[in-house]
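UPF0102 protein COU19_02440
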Amino acid sequence: MDITSKSRKEIGALGEQIAAHYLERRGLRLRDRNYTRKTGELDLIVEGQEAGGTLHFVEVKTLVCDEFPAERGASDAYDPSLNLHEAKVRKVARTGEWYVLENGWEGEWQVDGCLVWLRRRDGMARVRYLPQIV
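Predicted structure tokens:
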């Protein structure tokens, strides 16, 4: 799939879809997506399958690249985790508090990050999950 003609919004939606599938394959259940309040937006809300599972508010950052970055090594490529700065994470946490209150959640919850790189020429993806970024 060639993604060169996709808009920024379409790229973000594709990244969120890829992240949701990635998390589901790892045993998390998708509860909600794109939950918006005055404090911000929650990209993905997933829940652990274990008894008394944890609620995860996942901020997804997607980047289109020509080639995937080197595995956790030094790289000159832009790192999308740079957009998971303190102010952004605070907004996600505040919006998560709204979700917890509105839905009567009484269990544990946390803020996670998910980085998605999409290769421009073929739409292949690489995902990196960052649990508990707060």
